[in-house]
Design goal:
Two copies of one chain form a homodimer.
Chain A: E1 8-13, H1 17-28, E2 33-37, H2 45-49, H3 52-70, E3 77-79, H4 84-99, H5 104-109, E4 113-116, E5 120-123, E6 126-129, E7 132-141, E8 146-147, E9 160-161, E10 175-179, H6 183-195, E11 198-202, H7 214-226, E12 230-232, E13 235-242, E14 245-250, E15 255-259, E16 262-265, E17 269-270, E18 304-306, H8 317-332, E19 345-348, E20 353-358, H9 361-367, E21 371-377, H10 382-386, E22 393-399, E23 410-417, H11 420-423, H12 425-433, H13 438-442, H14 452-460, H15 466-476
Parallel strand pairs in A: 1-2, 1-7, 2-4, 7-18, 9-16, 10-11, 10-16, 11-12
Antiparallel strand pairs in A: 5-6, 6-7, 8-17, 13-14, 14-15, 19-20, 20-23, 21-22, 22-23
Amino acid sequence: MANEAFDFELIVLGAGSAGLGLALFMAKAKLSVLLIDKTAQDVGGDCLNHGCVPSKALIHAARQVHQSRQAARFGVQVSGAADLGRVMDYVQERQAIIRRHENPDYLREQGITVEIGEPRFVGPHDIELNGRTHRGRRLVIATGSRPRQLAVPGAELVAHYDNQHVWDLRQLPARLLVVGGGPNGVELAQAMQRFGAQVTVVHSDKQILEKEDPSISAVLLERLRGEGIDFQLEAKITAFSNANTAQVRHADGHETAVEFDAAYVAIGREVGFNGLQLEKAGVGLDAHGHLVLDEHLQTTNPAVFAAGDAANSLKFSHGAELHMRLLLFNFFSPIKKKLDYDHFSWVTFTDPEVAHFGLDAAELDKRGTAYERWETDFAADDRAVVDDYQYGRLLLFVEKNLLPGTKRRLLGGAMVAPGAGELVQELILANSSGLGVDALFDKIYPYPTAARINQALVVSQRDISPLTRLALDFAYKL
Amino acid sequence: MANEAFDFELIVLGAGSAGLGLALFMAKAKLSVLLIDKTAQDVGGDCLNHGCVPSKALIHAARQVHQSRQAARFGVQVSGAADLGRVMDYVQERQAIIRRHENPDYLREQGITVEIGEPRFVGPHDIELNGRTHRGRRLVIATGSRPRQLAVPGAELVAHYDNQHVWDLRQLPARLLVVGGGPNGVELAQAMQRFGAQVTVVHSDKQILEKEDPSISAVLLERLRGEGIDFQLEAKITAFSNANTAQVRHADGHETAVEFDAAYVAIGREVGFNGLQLEKAGVGLDAHGHLVLDEHLQTTNPAVFAAGDAANSLKFSHGAELHMRLLLFNFFSPIKKKLDYDHFSWVTFTDPEVAHFGLDAAELDKRGTAYERWETDFAADDRAVVDDYQYGRLLLFVEKNLLPGTKRRLLGGAMVAPGAGELVQELILANSSGLGVDALFDKIYPYPTAARINQALVVSQRDISPLTRLALDFAYKL
């Protein structure tokens, strides 16, 4: 390096999940760090401001409203729809609590230099911000992503929201159109239907949550239809003929119309680096406008890295966390780790939840890994019986070992059930720690916890072979 | 053995959790097994008929009723008390579903010989039942336990129920007196309060759930008091002066009266072997009337074993499961395992749930194990914030290692939080598989799952020492 005089050991562009984690660790290690975001309000990133935090608070409120109607079965009188204004008050109150630890002043108290503004590169190590230049030994682009916009004729006529603006709604639309049946679309669709809206979801694929195994997402679809949501699959909105009418083309070519009062758009996210002047730093983009990155999240400039949604991989808060951990490890270690999603997991926070971890069938087939597919419904599970969710389903991919007695690792799996996101945690731990399925077999579970289903599936796959039977008979009579 | 002609390889007295598991495995291994219970209805044991199954169904109904009142916050109109008759219909319907796999006919289809009646020993290997004698190579006493009766003057005047009879209630008592603040008492107390009864709990100890760490049970107590339950601790009922009045003596000696309409008695369980003629089999009892057992659950007759509540240890369904597994292992293995509760866990299914696993402070102190006590409240946990349970608490006991870099095992812990029974499952797995706390540190948790609190506590205990800081500084600048 020509000039070793750095103003900061690390400059982080973006104070979302990745940026906060990076800056907090650097400060804890007493290494100078500059954290930049556009506005003070943007600190916390999409997760706190528009994403996981408000949506999970909304889902909590929706679950309580739904449970209240279920309670009518036991004689309590329940009536009326939810007041969306009061729900949104709750959502904002929850955000305010988390913001106590995610705001510029708090971060400055932790030893981080925080600047607010629109940064741009002016050299390989140099960022210009509010008329000043800051030189960093290393820099991380963690500028996040934004919702993809609906490019359909007539969209400008329609009151439509995405995850950045839906939190401004104070009145429940009587009829809500949701565009997109991915995690974001179905979570909001269910919440709004539970509050009392009539929701229609238009989705291009033949299944909702198309990253999930069809046997898993089918269970959720049936539940959501049972709550009254109208799903139109393999369907596309071709135009809006007026503020309340969408034209929908179906797989077989015929067209129908959906009448609605407001629309929620959840058709994915996109990244962009406008204004960053990446070319001044020698940071390259590919033909799609994505950062060119190696498996260490390093850009074409060796001093500049990417993390979180800006790295254009799985767009989850904990994806940003994975990146953040990888970068910190590699910054401080002579041996560099590669980015690896083999133990990655995610949860869709519908009710029932859909949880997913490790490798799926497509990936295992691609790798040529020998595996078995183990699955069970929850019909005979005691907890599912007492808590009334016998519709649940668990799927595991287990290493196929030809040698008996060797450890059979858990390669991946998925679950759909109330609380599935928690019930799979021990499976994720087994997967990420390289435990064999025997570890689940050998555990004693408190009765009647819901996680017993994990063991039940493992136990059900243990057969007693004729040879084992002879050995057992002999041993028993000793 | 003088006479090798056995009618059955195993005879099991009692078709509860232990007995069913033993008989089903024997049948699967094609070894002849006789399973005996008093009545066809008793199959499934206390768990199915009077214990965990009906109580968890009741708790589910109570949670829905409680959630319905919570939903009023979001504008839904809710009024009235629950109809206990409808709740009990739900409870019985749930039991009927589980009974499909726990009844004589189903068990016979699995290859088990099932007899109904009152057995008694007539020799070391011999059971007489309904006028016939059956000789077993091995025999297991798994006859369970029964609720301890209230021995208080005037008890005969009072409409009182225990876990065997409370399921007959069809009308909610306006005022319910619960005697005993252990798991059984507090679970029922909360359910009944939520249905609309005014509940008073009288408990002899200074804390409820006295097997729990005081920091954990205090959180539950505060929540339950917040729901309106009147707890009288360090208090004893000395007499009932009439059908609706209990005299209560307090720690300081003063006496008060509690008015009530019905009483629920939850003062523990007792075992008894009346009618079994244990002396004919050379099966010994101690001064308390408990079976004399070695650490393999073997009685003073080498052919006779005990399992479940009859073995007079921790009285849980999954305790019976632990016994059942130990017996099966030892029956088929030349190396015998000893009974070991080091990784045992249990859950009290109140809301919030209280979960407990592994060794507690008292046991660790007794063993002289070096450990650290790590604990956190849930105030800053994102999931606790969005789902409104910032009162939660997690406690871990972690091995104290003087050598840096060595694995630090998780020795035990406890949690109070909604769903705690599920959230501790990965901790139980780490504990029972001998994983270090690093396995939790290294995991990537889907955001915002509740189980992240487990990692958060581990992370919070990692400090960067001045020496590490220097090393980090050096490594970063390489």
